[in-house]
Amino acid sequence: ILTITCQCAISRSALMSSEQFVIGGLGSVRGYRQDALQTDNGVFATAEVEIPVARIFRNTGVIKVIPFVDYGIGWNSSGQENPSPNSLASLGVGLQWRQGNNFNARLDWGIPLISAVFGDSRTWQEKGLYFSVQWNPSF
User: At residue 118, does pLDDT exceed 80?
Assistant: First the structure.
């Protein structure tokens, strides 16, 4: 399954930091720290291919390998200086375990393609690793 996702935000004026478009991290451009870029305007796109590799637990669960590519660019309004770099790009791969409709666990590893230093480089975020778990109990 090929999934392509895109988000954008456009503003005519400068925004407060809490309202700005953020790029980087899980749910955006993996391989960079969360919210690495904050700008007034921006576009983000990702493409993923889900490849089932194994059925588990009496065929109620599935393991998938998910290669992906992410790209985002941001710019400011009203003559404010743009961050440098103002774009981020990454390639990576994810491993997902989906168990029915109630459980999903995913590990992603993003490799940054554009050199950028945003703070401490010793955390798992800066190493491009992201782990998420979703559990939706049915009552």
Answer: no
